[in-house]
Amino acid sequence: MNTTRKLALSSLAALAVGLILLVAALAQAQNISQQITRESTLTGIMERGALRVGFDTFVPWAMQDKTGEFIGFEIDVAKRFAEDLGVRVELVPTAWRGIIPALLTGKFDLLIGGMSIRADRAQQVYFSMPYYFTGQALVAHKEKAAGFTTLEDFNKPEVTIVTRTGTTAQRAAENLFPKAQRKYFDKEPQAVQELLMGRAHALIGNAPLPSQEAIKNPDRLFLPVEGNLTNEPIGIAMRKGDPDLLNYVNSWILQVTGEGWIQDRYAYWFTTMDWKDQVE
Question: pTM for the full model?
């Protein structure tokens, strides 16, 4: 066998080995892909025929109407998401303090509850891309905070700020008013009631709640500063290690945002009070 023939045979052998390795790698990748799909929460939702959604009550994100049914912006989002998947929705109200542990232990599939995307939370869960932005706002008691017109007026030891525990409102209170006294409540209505009773100077809450409370109680509350204190992206949270579900949720958000549906529902719940008769 001459040298040229030997080189040709060696090249063919190397090419054959390369093809075998490539086919093996592709087969392994396909197996991994199939395994991810089998183990995805999305597959479980489709097999079960139901999407379980965790949330807590925040007006107007999620609240009960006169009949006891849950309504609100996030309820609309959960229902539309389930409808597009072709499954029914099961709403799982959960206390905010334990809502991430409940997600991690499988009490529900997705957390659609107005949760701000934060790096510390992302250590525990996957977040979708933002589907809207919100922020924290301040509403004050007219008598307790008479003459207060700046944020500095509230950052004093004799001032009491109330908010909901475990929320970004609590974080905003700690960051913006470190000198003030701060009181935390498990439920937002408790914090609102504390302010209305004049036992606090101001409340920090997710917009538009502060402005809506000022409109509802013009004799007792007012807005001392314009606009929001923070700007926060809101995402859908899910358990880690599920790229199929994350991809689907992000694709769905792009779809309904492109349709203008998210913007329409946001405008209804956050810029009008047309829903008020359903709850009062």
Answer: 0.78
